[in-house]
Amino acid sequence: MSESVISVENLVKLYGDLRAVDDISFEVRTGEVFAFLGPNGAGKTTTVEIIETIRNATSGKVLIFGMDVRKNRTEIIKRIGVLPQEFSSFDRLTVEETVRYFAALFESDCDVQHLINLVNLGKHRNQLYTNLSGGLKQRVGIAVALVNDPEIVFLDEPTTGLDPRARHDVWDVINGLKKEGKTVFLTTHYMEEAEVLADTVAIISRGRIISTGSPSELIDKHSTSIHVTIKGGMGISSVAEAMGLQWEAKNGGSVVMEARDNEQILEIMMRLKEKNIGYDSIDIRKANLEEVFLKLTGEGLSGGGGH
Ligand SMILES: Nc1ncnc2c1ncn2[C@@H]1O[C@H](COP(=O)(O)OP(=O)(O)OP(=O)(O)O)[C@@H](O)[C@H]1O
Ligand SMILES: [Mg+2]
Questions:
Q1: I want to staple 49 with a disulfide (CB 3.0 to 4.6 A). Which of 55, 108, 227, 269 is the partner?
Q2: Which of 11, 13, 37, 46 to mutate to test the pocket of ligand 1 (most atoms within 8 A of CB)?
Q3: Whose C-alpha lies nearest to ligand 1, atom 7?
Q4: Distance CA 76, CA 133 (A)
Q5: CA separation, residue 96 to residues 26, 132, 148, 170 (Å)
């Protein structure tokens, strides 16, 4: 187990009467990708900006590199990189000029070409910021977050609003950061993103962390059923009925049953055979993070939950 590089204890943030962050505690380990997964208004940005020393907590204790965020701001900001939720830059600078500008601002002698290549912008180095697509702009933002060669990189919703292709490109960049040994703190409301990238996911809803673990731990811990989808002819649902399983007919002639465990899956198969019920295909899968999230909070990830 690596050591913890961020430690948050009983963090609370009030905005007037609103408990935007409501007594949360968690640890981030060195070198991991840690994802804060939650819907709009859950308290993600508030929490990361307290860790980044940008906002002040109402109460609680936050240590980063073992240092208190209230007392060691100057030291801490040298060692972290930040992509804010609404990153934007100078329209009339090129990609390369933008990275150079921020490097100079941070008095960093970083290798600008290396950074541009790291975020896969080599082909675009001479393009004006204003002419870049949303996905490319986000990658410029990540390059800017890296000019001081930070040990921890905070990315606040780096892929929101991007198309699937651009999102995958940003995922590649994040995996590259991990390979470089950096700790990545990611906030997102895309469950696939957390599932694909994160070593540890903390699910946050209405200011509270409701579960933490690796994606597969969360799914194992909270999924109560296995989805068995059987595509085929008549009579399949009668098996579910006979076994007392929940089932649903889907478009295209398939039936989805909720099995509790592997024993029940075997029993479904046996009964299909005994009754000579033919089928074309069987698909068996556990719940995904989105279903876990729904179960835990009663709210969806991408919509709702906001204020
Ligand atoms: N400066 C502020 N003053 C008052 N209320 C605020 C402030 N910043 C955030 N809030 C409120 O606190 C709650 C948490 O906001 P926050 O921005 O941390 O959520 P988030 O999880 O980052 O959401 P999103 O996914 O929309 O970015 C929201 O209800 C928001 O309206
Ligand atoms: Mg936010």
A1: 55
A2: 46
A3: 15
A4: 32
A5: 37, 13, 16, 18
4-221, what's its fold?
Answer: Rossmann fold (3.40.50)
Ligand 1 neighbours, Cβ below 6 Å, are 15, 18, 20, 38, 40-46, 85, 189, 307
Q: Which atom of ligand 1 is nearest to the CA of 307?
A: 29
The fraction of the chain above a pLDDT of 90, given in percent, is: 72
Q: Looking at the domain 225-286, which fold is it?
A: Alpha-Beta Plaits (3.30.70)
Phi, psi of 137 (to 5 degrees): -60, -40
Say what the pLDDT of residue 228 is. 93
Q: Which ligand is nearest to the Cα of residue 46, counting in written order?
A: 1
Is residue 168's pLDDT more than 80?
Answer: yes
Tell me the two tokens of residue 193: 């993103």
Q: Which residues contact 250 (CB under 8 A, 6 or more apart)?
A: 229, 256
Helical axes 95-105 vs 134-145, angle rounded to 10°: 30
Domain ranges of the chain: 4-221, 225-286
- Ligand 2 centroid to Cα of residue 78, in Å, is 23
Q: Determine phi and psi for 200, rounding to 5 degrees.
A: -130, 135
| Helices of type H across the chain | 44-51, 73-78, 95-105, 112-118, 134-145, 164-179, 191-197, 215-222, 236-243, 262-274, 289-297
